[in-house]
């Protein structure tokens, strides 16, 4: 992928060599003025490059199309299957408040304890040293156990987790479709189950003015899937019949379906931003607009980025041109 020179035979210098020193990621953005440091960082360039490379790879492709599923992808699906099983084993508890079920903390404690071993099982034998660094992003990707909330910063941590797996060569260029259609899609299903089971609060949600209470990336990647579609236009996604008929093929429609299940009342009222997007004439314009919005609303917002952690793979060091 954009960041795994080592996976192409003509390039003899892998990004991460055997004597590479990993480090446990930590927060670096503690004040609003630090945001410039983030936007100039290698991490920002790598993260955005990763998102856009995948965005390009998915253009016009259905979730149900054929693609390679590597051993690493299978192992990641096993990892997510384990998280899913733990939800079944940790039912919500009876409590006075409807939101933020405290059983989530029990579920999270299990992940906290097992994350490093789960990640080690996904990594090749010669990359085991990366497990403590990469496991941090996995733990950050499932919500906050103090506030029992989940938002786009947690979603970004999962994308960062996948980006790191590319940088160490565990995932490769030909895994691109499987990364989104298999791994990220399975992650979304597990997150939706967490959100529903433990009634998690949206983290820093802008309510009806935000795109969605919990996610952003599947709208970007999902709109890319629709580019140059012969019949389905942006105006069609607010039609429930279209959603029910095509959601298995399109990530964007899966998101709309989940919103329709979770919210009541007119779509234009509970999801105003999406309603506005449905009036954009082409999917290509929707896709470009969502990328701009993602940078402005998520990646350039201090309340989101103050929680992001930087290590050796996603480095706070300035971008080297």
Keywords:
321 residues, mainly alpha, Four Helix Bundle (Hemerythrin (Met), subunit A), two-stranded antiparallel ribbon, two-stranded parallel ribbon, 14 helices, 4 strands, 52% helix, 2% strand, disordered N terminus
Helix/strand order: EHHHHHEHHEHHHHHHHE
* Major pleated sheet: 2 strands, antiparallel
Taking all residues together, what is the mean pLDDT?
Answer: 93
**Can you count the helices?**
14
Task: Please tell me the CATH architecture by its name.
Answer: Up-down Bundle
According to DSSP, the number of beta strands is 4
Text of the CATH class? Mainly Alpha
**What is the CATH topology classification name?**
Four Helix Bundle (Hemerythrin (Met), subunit A)
Proportion of strand residues: under 5%
Give the N-terminus to C-terminus distance in angstroms. Answer: 19 Å
Strand order of the largest sheet: 1-4
Family: Belongs to the PTPA-type PPIase family.
Main location: cytoplasm
Keywords: Acetylation, ATP-binding, Cytoplasm, Isomerase, Magnesium, Metal-binding, Nucleotide-binding, Nucleus, Rotamase
Subcellular location: Cytoplasm; Nucleus
Structural commentary:
By secondary structure, the protein is mostly helical. It has a single domain (26-310), classed as Up-down Bundle (Four Helix Bundle (Hemerythrin (Met), subunit A)). It is 52% helix and 2% strand. It is built from 14 helices and four strands. The chain has helices at 35-39, 42-57, 71-89, 103-122, 131-140, 152-167, 176-197, 217-225, 240-246, 251-262, 267-270, 272-277, 283-299, 302-305; strands at residues 26-27, 149-150, 201-202, 309-310. It has a two-stranded antiparallel sheet with strand order 1-4. α2 packs parallel to α8 and α8 (217-225) runs antiparallel to α13 (283-299). The longest helix is centred in the middle third of the chain and has 22 residues, at 176-197. Mean pLDDT is 93; it is low at 1-14. Its EC number is 5.2.1.8. It is found in: Cytoplasm; Nucleus.
């Amino acid at each position: 992928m954009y960041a795994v020179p080592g996976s192409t035979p003509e390039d003899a210098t892998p990004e991460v060599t055997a004597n590479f020193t990993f480090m446990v990621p930590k927060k670096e953005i503690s004040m609003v003025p630090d945001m410039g440091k983030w936007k100039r960082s290698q991490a920002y360039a790598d993260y955005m490059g990763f998102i856009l490379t995948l965005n390009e790879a998915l253009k016009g492709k259905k979730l149900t199309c054929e693609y390679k599923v590597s051993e690493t992808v299978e192992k990641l699906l096993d990892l997510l299957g384990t998280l899913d099983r733990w939800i079944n084993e940790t039912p919500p508890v009876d409590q006075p408040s409807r939101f933020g079920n405290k059983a989530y903390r029990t579920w999270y404690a299990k992940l906290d304890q097992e994350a490093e071993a789960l990640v080690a099982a996904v990594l090749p034998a010669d990359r085991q040293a990366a497990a403590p660094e990469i496991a941090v992003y996995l733990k950050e990707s499932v919500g906050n156990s103090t506030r029992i909330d989940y938002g786009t910063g947690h979603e970004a941590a999962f994308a960062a987790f996948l980006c790191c797996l590319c940088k160490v060569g565990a995932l490769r260029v030909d895994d691109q479709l499987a990364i989104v259609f298999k791994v990220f899609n399975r992650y979304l299903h597990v997150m939706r189950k967490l959100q529903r089971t433990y009634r998690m609060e949206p983290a820093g949600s802008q309510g009806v003015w935000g795109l969605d209470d919990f996610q952003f990336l599947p709208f970007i990647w999902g709109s890319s899937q629709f580019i140059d579609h012969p019949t389905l236009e942006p105006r069609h996604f607010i039609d429930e019949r279209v959603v029910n008929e095509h959601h298995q093929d399109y990530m964007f429609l899966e998101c709309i379906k989940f919103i329709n299940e979770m919210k009541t009342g007119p779509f234009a009222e509970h999801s105003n931003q999406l309603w506005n997007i449905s009036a954009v004439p082409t999917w290509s314009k929707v896709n470009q607009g969502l990328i701009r919005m993602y940078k402005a609303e998520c990646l350039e917002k201090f309340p989101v980025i103050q929680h992001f952690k930087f290590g050796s793979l996603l480095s706070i060091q300035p971008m080297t041109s």
